[in-house]
Amino acid sequence: MREDFLHYLWKYKKFDFTNAKTTQGEKILLIDSGTHNFNSGPDFFNARLKIGDQLWAGNVELHIKASDWYFHQHEKDTNYDNVILHVVWEDDVDVQRHNKTSIPALSLKSLVDQDLLLGYRQLFASPENWINCEKNFKEVDDFTLRHWQERLYLKRLEEKSILILDLLGKSGNNWEAVLFQMLAKNFGLNLNGDAFLSMAQSLDFSVVQKSSQNNLQLEALFFGQAGLLSKQINIPYYKKLQQEYAYLKHKYKLSNSGVIPPKYFRLRPDNFPNIRLSQLASLYFKQKNLFSELIASKSLEPIYKILDVETSEFWRQHYSFPKKHREREKRLSPAFKDLVLINTIIPLRFCYSQSRGNDEIEILLELIEKIPAENNKIVQNFNKIKNGSTQNALHSQAMINLKKNYCEANKCLDCAIGVKLLQRKT
Question: Name one Pfam family in it (predicted).
């Protein structure tokens, strides 16, 4: 038995509330179960009850055992003085508020349908499963799944907003600087995302703007700040980068002392830091009004066109400075462009529109729904469990959120799918 099951029972009135009585035998009339509180303090705020002949308005606290009240030391906390009912599974002790007054208790143990209780226990009966509801997930109807996926995606957008708003504050509300920092992080992917972000944060965005007329200068700036120009390599291109960086470093008093060194280990050559930084430099050399163009785009096509960049000429024949290979174009792939949209452009537009008081959510939902679903283990496994459950990037982002923040945390009773499966038992 977990406490979140009691929260579910109380919140959705999944018990025989018509026969609810306090452990002292007084009739309880449940008028309003209150607002579920997910932060510190009582579990439900502003509930309305009638106990005996007395109407009550206040908070409700839930525990598996009544003695948990003392285990959590609520009797010493004045925040619990407004608790009007203690809802428990097992009433093993009388409890009192901080002011020594007793709190009525309701035990749910004899009021819960046995089929519902069995369904709850079965939900957590197979810890070896990839997710708790693995056997029954495919039974959830498409309406419930799609509605929950949209909500999960919006929650994921809000999570991504935390970093964006933090960067915005540090940059003095410079949205163009934040775009650059987020793009840098995205270009670094999982392995080098933090390294590239630290590089982007190590210089003022005005330096990028002033260097954007010269692609070699931009590459020198990014490579130098990332610590990729510290060796002695007898190649003309490398020496030019070193000379340009030395000039920029002196002119703008640059320092890269706090920059995280990028890694190459287990990376595909197309994702090498020098390749991605060259592509990032090409983007800022090619696009002079990058932020305004990305914000104004109402469809995917112009954004894809903006992101249609490749490395500089040297990297057509190199993956590293010393070694030459047969010439090949190294453009941003369609899949990489989609990642930039998913992880940078759409979250940034979400934050920007909110800051301006504009409701752009429908446009953003249309954009994300047109992007193909990501291909990762989470998406693959959900599609195995329920064929077609993840069809576009909104769905894949939602399922990443679902797996990491609900399934892995066993928050089945905060999940629309878990609740739907339990409702079949009642």
Answer: DUF2851
Residue 83 within any structural domain of the chain: yes
The CA distance from 178 to 186, in Å, is 12
Domain that holds residue 207: 171-369
pLDDT digits (tens, 9 = 90+) for 248-302: 999 999 999 999 999 999 899 999 999 999 999 999 999 989 999 999 999 999 9
* 333 and 199 part of one domain: yes
pLDDT of residue 425: 52
Determine, yes or no, domain membership for 143. Answer: no
Tell me which of 76, 95, 112 is where a domain ends: 112
Sign for the pseudo-dihedral over CA of 172, 178, 180, 184? positive
314 and 178 belong to one structural domain? yes
CA distances from 413 to 197, 385, 395, 417 (A): 37, 20, 20, 8
Q: In this structure, are 177 and 292 located in the same domain?
A: yes
12, 108 Cβ separation under 8 angstroms: no
Give the tokens for residue 21: 């009585």
H helix or E strand, kind and range, residue 60 = strand 54-65
183 and 107 fall within a common domain: no
pTM as predicted: 0.84
Query: Does the pLDDT value for residue 246 go beyond 60?
Result: yes
Q: Do 350 and 220 fall into the same domain? A: yes
Give CA 237 to chain center in angstroms: 41
Could you give the CA distance from residue 47 to residue 49 in angstroms, rounded to a whole number?
A: 7
Q: Is the pLDDT of residue 99 over 90?
A: no
Residue 45: helix, strand or coil by DSSP? strand
User: Who's near 250: CB < 8 A, 6+ residues apart?
Assistant: none
pLDDT over 70 at 185, yes or no: yes
Token pair recorded at residue 283: 């983007």
**206/275 same-domain check:** yes
How many domains are there within the chain?
2
> What phi, psi does 276 have (nearest 5°)?
-65, -35
Per-residue pLDDT of 146-168, as tens digits, reads 999 999 999 999 999 999 999 99
Q: Report the pLDDT averaged over residues 6-18.
A: 93
Of 343, 288, 272, 279, nearest to 308 by C-alpha is 279
